User: What shape does this take?
Amino acid sequence: MNKNYMKAFALFGALLSMVSCTSDMEFKDSQVSAVTQLYEPADGKSVTLQASATASTFFEWEAAKAEDSGSPLYEVVFYKEGESTPIYKVLSDKNGMMNSATITHKTLNKVAAAAGFKSGASGKVSWSIIASRGLNQAEATVKHQLNITSLEGFDEIPSSLFIMGEGAENGSAFSSPEQGVYEIFTKLEGGKSYQFCSNNKGDGTIYSLDGLKLREGGSTVAPATGIYRLVLDFNVASATIREIKSIGLFFCPNNNIMFDLPYAGNGEFSGVGVVAFKQEGWGRDERYKFLMEYADGTKQYWGTKNGTDSRPGGLAMDDPYYYIMETGNNQWDDKWKFDGDFDGGADGPHPGVKTRITVLFHGANYTHHVELAD
Assistant: This one.
């Protein structure tokens, strides 16, 4: 191959590279067609919102087409009746990839609030679709009207909340996992009354439950003595109440509860037992998390909020390593590891040593403590 041919070949390669880069740029900025048909909900459909966490409404529209034959992204956009400026946007299913969206009633209630509907009132909004590909967008050529009856909620939501009364752990504070939602793990006394207050003195705004509806004023009587998880959603004036049967230390290698953590008060569960690491061919297995069982027989794992695959190495108990959250039904995922000091197995380095474990369901971050027992 002569030198001139080699130079020409190199130049041709460079031109191909430039074309490829240009093609990449065109791919990112590809034109996208506007959606021209909306399927569900039908134009003028009425939806009465439900407070259930699983309640939702299905939206569907024709697929847009992208110039580069790629997949467009979609947003469902909502407007006040007769206006053209969006008041709320929701990505379609699968992070915007689908030409459909399953939108929860809780989200639709936020749409109603953005449109100026009062709690429990009915009104009209319109919805449409924005399709996009790269930097380019195309708004649908059609809109559908949606009649929404909003959820009952509170116009003024307390900035803090406490449980009060002879039937409760008087003065215990709720946590607030999200705006307008309060949660507490607490003991209730059967046949005795309790209520909720916006301050811990008992002279603030009082709230109570009417079944699973949250209302202002009044009081509530616990049906039976037990440990309960109460979630109050002031956005939709509803409550979820679940009785807790038990929570225990779940030892991953054995796939079972190693010992229970009885309720200790103020949203804390604490227990003492021997943690016997499991001897494997590669070393001693020390992985753990927690398993909660409700009175109705359902179970919930609690694992690490901040993923880790290492021992804490003596970290302070307030370190985020110990933060907990609800996790999936899985033996191994979202676990922590014990430091070697807590290995009390008969074949381990500290035979019979006892460990105290405390799970704390209160404060800004739920967490747990691990310490040697006295």
Observations:
- Confidence is low (pLDDT under 50) at residues 1-27.
- The longest helix spans residues 3-28.
- The first strand starts at residue 38 and ends at 40.
